[in-house]
TrEMBL record:
SUPFAM superfamilies: Anticodon-binding domain of PheRS, Class II aaRS and biotin synthetases, S-adenosyl-L-methionine-dependent methyltransferases. Its EC number is 6.1.1.20. It is found in: Mitochondrion matrix. PANTHER family: FERREDOXIN-FOLD ANTICODON-BINDING DOMAIN-CONTAINING PROTEIN 1, PHENYLALANYL-TRNA SYNTHETASE. This is phenylalanine--tRNA ligase. GO terms for cellular component: mitochondrial matrix. Gene3D superfamilies: Bira Bifunctional Protein, Domain 2, Ferrodoxin-fold anticodon-binding domain, Vaccinia Virus protein VP39. Pfam families: BMT5-like, FDX-ACB. Residues 518-611 form the FDX-ACB domain.
Length: 611
């Protein structure tokens, strides 16, 4: 591998590396050869480097690397820059600028899978790894300046000078003097994936007997048809689904019917707020005629409260029944199974696939996730024991998985739904809109499903119960389960395009996830505006716009202030918007551009008056 060392003082670090097998060292410094050789021990290290076949280059500016190395001499696998400094008494601002130009220069000469190693004295980096940690404004903000050049911090560990044979730090205030490196840290940076280009996307699907094409909502462009549950996938959501199915097959006969479930529904789900639905527009020029559409919709899935007539559920001001929307749940398909009565009592029907829900921005609120729905018809009078048997089976599988992954036995409980009011996470709260829930399935130490609810258990309403049978269903959020089992703190990581995510789960093996983007920088912006007179503010639409404009780079939106003007009664709101990526580089300039775009979009789409 080709290794580039920059800013060498006495070349003792380079000399320690030059003997490594399979490594070609290119050692450089900013000074001329005459100036560098005057440092104590430098001449001896330079001779050792040249005798070993290493290259020694002088007068190299670390901010203009492309000028020093021709195209054929680039593609370094590793670049080292130990204790960079502008020299003399330069402050934090000048050293940040030096690092920013250095990282931009590295982008021109680093191999695609290469690493940049930057060693800094204790406290300089400004990350939580520094102990003690400096205030952000008084640090070099290394993660933020690297992000501006497209790099992410993938590892940080102590810089142990005593383990490097012959190494002696030098260069204190541009002099041949040593400095304290106790508590120093080595920061390892890698290339980030490029920003996604969210071009309009059409998706083809079957609606009844018709093949149609529809426009995918922009916020879902990078999430539609990802195939995480397909047979060749090693994604953890598929592995968890397969493990759960295998466990259920020990106690029940299973039938998997997930392959033919349409993405689109027709009508309006009763009890569900319209702002939580992704309404769909058919692609121009591809919409079927009204007559064909009616024929197609006759075979489409109608969403209702487990069997009520959809046409009776239309409310004033809501979209007409013929409007289409992305499925927010697999329950309508269970409803269709119940109506047809085509399943055998005692056979567990397993449905799975992505579902889509507009929601507010929180770490566990997902506009799309993979649902696993199991439906079981049992003899009347045995439903409670069958529910317990079903839940015990799921709990046993999850407990076994959790213990094998983390070595800790989790707390998994079935909670009575009547015990809880509004203290629900978004998944549980939306499920409650879909119909009555008997139980919440919770994982973790929190006795309430405010953040730990991963599933709900229902029985079909009375009008769908026969004299002999009762239908029981359990809905599981596979994405939440993957987060809890694998220690993934941010749901967005499940949808990353960075290949380093799936590499941690080879052949579907479940492991504790180790983030490849440490301490990502965050950027805080405020936005305030006057609301249109006499109109209710749709906060979910506000959050959805933030998702779309930023490409899911907004991690938090908090209401800071609400003001009503005396006399006129006009209302003003002020929100704090925090931009942060979990998997790729996000620089301050890009975040500022997103904020400007967001301001313009809420003005146009929500009719507010910016302040």
């Amino acid at each position: 591998r080709r290794v580039l060392l920059l800013g060498e003082g006495n070349f003792s670090f380079s000399a320690a590396l030059c003997g490594a097998w399979g490594t070609h060292v290119v050692a450089t410094c900013y000074e001329s050869e005459e100036e560098a050789a005057g440092r104590g021990g430098a001449a001896r290290s330079i001779r050792r480097l040249r005798d070993s076949g290493a290259e020694v280059v002088f007068s190299v500016d670390c901010t203009k690397l492309e000028e020093h190395f021709l195209l054929g001499k680039r593609d370094f696998d590793r670049i080292y820059f130990n204790f960079p400094h502008c020299g003399r008494k330069a402050g934090v601002v000048k050293n940040r600028q030096l690092l920013a130009r250095f990282f931009h220069s590295c982008a021109e000469v680093l191999a695609q899978d290469g690493e940049i190693h930057v060693a800094l004295c204790n406290g300089q980096g400004g990350t939580p790894a520094d102990q003690p940690r400096r205030e952000w404004h008084n640090s070099w903000q290394i993660v933020a300046v690297a992000a501006g050049a497209g790099f992410i911090l993938s590892d940080v560990h102590p810089f142990r000078a005593e383990t490097i044979e012959g190494y002696k730090c030098t260069g204190y205030r541009s002099q041949d003097k040593s400095f304290c490196v106790e508590g120093a840290l080595n920061h390892v940076f890698t290339r980030s994936t490029a920003p996604l280009c969210f071009t309009p996307l059409s998706c083809k699907t079957q609606l009844g007997s018709q093949n149609i094409s529809f426009q995918v909502p922009q916020v879902l462009v990078d999430k539609i048809n990802r195939g995480f549950l397909e047979g060749n996938s090693s994604h953890p959501v598929r592995t968890i689904k397969e493990k759960l199915s295998a466990g259920l097959s020990q106690d029940f006969a299973l039938q998997n019917i997930s392959s033919c479930l349409p993405l689109l529904h027709q009508g309006h789900p009763e009890g569900v707020c319209p702002s939580n639905i992704f309404w769909i527009t058919l692609s121009p020029g591809e919409a079927p005629s009204t007559e064909k559409m009616s024929q197609g919709l006759a075979g489409a899935v109608l969403f209702s409260h487990f069997g009520q007539d959809t046409d009776d559920n239309v409310q004033e001001g809501c979209p007409v029944p013929q409007q289409l929307y992305l499925r927010p749940s697999l329950l309508p398909h269970a409803q269709a199974i119940i109506k047809k009565g085509t399943f055998s009592p005692g056979t567990l029907q397993v449905l799975s696939g992505p579902v889509f829900r507009k929601c507010r921005i929180t770490p566990h609120s997902m506009p799309v996730f993979h649902e696993m729905l199991v439906v079981l018809a049992v003899s009347r009078g045995t439903e409670n024991s069958c529910i317990q048997m079903l839940v015990d089976n799921i709990k046993a599988t999850l407990s076994s998985l959790h213990q094998s992954i983390s070595g800790v036995k989790p707390s998994i409980s079935l909670q009575e739904a009547t015990r809880f009011g509004t203290e629900l996470n978004d998944f549980a709260a939306f499920e409650r809109q879909l119909g009555e829930i008997q139980h919440f399935l919770c994982v973790g130490t929190d006795p309430a499903p405010s953040g730990s609810c991963v599933g709900v258990v229902r029985t079909a309403p009375a009008e769908l119960k026969s004299c002999e049978l009762v239908v029981v269903s359990a809905s599981l959020n596979l994405d939440l389960l993957a987060m809890l089992l694998c220690g993934i703190s941010d749901w967005r990581m499940l949808w990353t395009w960075d290949r380093r995510f799936l590499r941690q789960f080879p052949e579907g093996e479940l492991r504790l996830f180790k983030s490849f983007s440490l301490y990502p920088p965050s950027y805080v912006h405020d936005v305030s505006f006057w609301l249109p007179d006499g109109e209710e503010f749709d906060e979910v639409a506000f959050h959805t716009l933030a998702r779309r404009v930023s490409g899911e780079m907004v991690v938090s939106i908090l209401l800071r202030d609400s003001f009503q003007q005396p006399g006129t009664g006009r209302r003003s709101l002020c929100y704090r918007v925090t931009f942060q990526s979990c998997d790729r580089a996000l620089g301050c300039r890009e975040a500022a551009e997103m904020q400007l775009h967001f301001r313009e979009e809420i003005r146009q789409q929500l009719g507010v008056t910016l302040r």
